[in-house]
Amino acid sequence: MAGATLNVILDHDRLIAVNAARNALAGWGDRLTFGLGLPVLLLGAHAWLTSLPERPALYLSAAAGFVAAFGLARLGAGRLTYHQTEGALAAPALSRRAAAQYLLLLIGPALAMLAMIFLLAGLRYPACWLATMPAGIAAGFAWHRFSRPSRRFAPAEALARRRALLFDRPVPTAIAGIAAAAMLLALGSLLREAGMTALALATSLAASAVLGGADAAKVRFMAQAGYRATRTVALHASSLSAFTLAFCLPLLLARQFVPAATAAGLAALVLAVLAVRVLAYRIHARRTADWIATLLLAAVALAAILVPFAAPLVLLLILGWLFRRAGRVTWLIA
Description:
Blueprint: H1 2-24, H2 28-50, H3 54-85, H4 90-93, H5 96-120, H6 126-146, H7 155-165, H8 170-186, H9 193-211, H10 216-224, H11 229-253, H12 257-283, H13 286-306, H14 311-326
């Protein structure tokens, strides 16, 4: 009985993964981009990883094994919890034996595939990243077990409520940016340029944390309601853009160029990440969109490491590809 129920759960998730892959590679242009981009990404990663000195390569191998196993454990535990509590396969998923087999057969092959990718990418010291994978699996399960927010203290929910209140509110956020710049300039006589740069960076980080988020359900609703991709991105970026502009202009007028450039650079990076996430949410379900956005941004980061001047071009190509695909789902009820 356990084997039969196990096949039902795995087949369910396998069909979801296959349909997500088909949706992501719906057109010939998408398949060509993936077919050409993946080998280039692997070759670039191989060239970088094999050139690392011994100690950084050792630390990176240990971290890669831990992070990969941690993510897969959290993914598997989250899927199992969904099946047990909200899914249509709650009855078979509640079987302890079937649950254990499900996690084993889901995480085991996925780790084997990741190990092959690590080897193809040139990640050295296989014994090191293989040794840290069990610790990553244990940490992932522990994180899933103990990270559920309580009713008394739920910082993620509180932050989500603040983001909802400040969504598309450029005027209040601009006033906040002017006030923050005034406070920073008032401290200018007490701080050196390095101190002001650090405070400007901290201010930009705080503003990005509050104003730089995207809600997948809201993005999908806006697409179904007829909002174009450009307008959706603009609405999500308006509050952070207004804050950054109002914060950096007084600094520039006061000839504080380094703090202003630091804050503006960080905000531009966050806005680029926000645009990628919003466009991915228009096209895919939240979990699939998060994975795709992570992979695309990793490609940009790798380009910045290998060929720094090519990173903006890679980012523009990715945004153009996402905008083209996101435009197709306007008015589409999924």
